Amino acid sequence: MHDNDLDSSLPVEQDALGLTPAGAALKRARRHLGLQLGLGMLLVMAVFALLAPWLAPHDPYLQNLSLRLLPPAWADGGQLSHLLGTDHLGRDYLSRIIHGARISMMIGLGAATIGAVIGVTLGIIAGYFGGWLDQAVNFLVTCQLAVPSLLLIMALVFVIGQSITVVIFVIGATHWVFYLVVTRSATLRIRELDFVAAAGAMGASKWQIAVKEILPNLVNQIMVIFTLEVAVAILNEATLSFLGLGVPSPIPSWGLMIAEGKTAMFFQPWLVILPGIALFVLVIAINLLGDGVRDVTVTNRRS
């Protein structure tokens, strides 16, 4: 039922070449340098995160005060056994950065997933059912936007307590507005299409139509927002950890590592620069991937 409605929006070039929407998107992906670069960078960091226990040369929690504040191996006084040096407690910096990738990606993916569940559910309800439900959802959005998200996150973490689980749920529970706005707008358009009316005429209930007919046609928009919200969640976690309200010490978090190194940044700048570079590369990779996914999944773009 979906194909007849979606085919009309395909560009002339796709029809002439006999490409399906998936085939046309794959063709664009092969020519999209930003998507390939972002995906490649993200895959490398994902491998490091997944294999952190085996790739890290040392225990990221092991302290050795006799080796505290060692510079990187290429600087004077550095050691090859600690390639990126050590922190103020003598913990291997490379090992902590590698394990920090696991923490950041876990929090980013978890928070973005929670936000997607909340936002997409409310967006479909508001867009398809309308009426007082739409008004109630719009009121929730207004309330959410009235409070700065970072201040709300800080307050909730302060009240509930610090842990990885709390950080994931709090960030996810406060980052659903973009999902809602986009899915509501798309649902308002999709619900007027013929295949939705046909499903209703065949006896499908409203909930069945919402789940089986409307939701599959929102996947592209959800994917794009999801990738961007992962990056936002990672930055929020780093900010919270930097302020002492995120991942509790001694768990390796890039934001926490920057906070711990800031007191010595003028004498040992690598303590701030190295985790900052890791955070920058991960967020840039995710943003490049998100922009690429947006570009290649736009069905009315010419090949």
UniProtKB/TrEMBL annotation:
Residues 101-290 form the ABC transmembrane type-1 domain. Belongs to the binding-protein-dependent transport system permease family. The keyword Cell membrane applies. Pfam families: BPD_transp_1, OppC_N. It is a multi-pass membrane protein. Keywords: Cell membrane, Membrane, Transmembrane, Transmembrane helix, Transport. PANTHER family: OLIGOPEPTIDE TRANSPORT SYSTEM PERMEASE PROTEIN APPC (PTHR43386), PEPTIDE ABC TRANSPORTER PERMEASE PROTEIN (PTHR43386:SF25). PROSITE patterns: ABC_TM1. This is Permease protein, ABC-type oligopeptide transporter. Signal peptide: none annotated. The chain crosses the membrane at residues 37-56, 103-129, 136-158, 164-182, 222-247, 267-289.
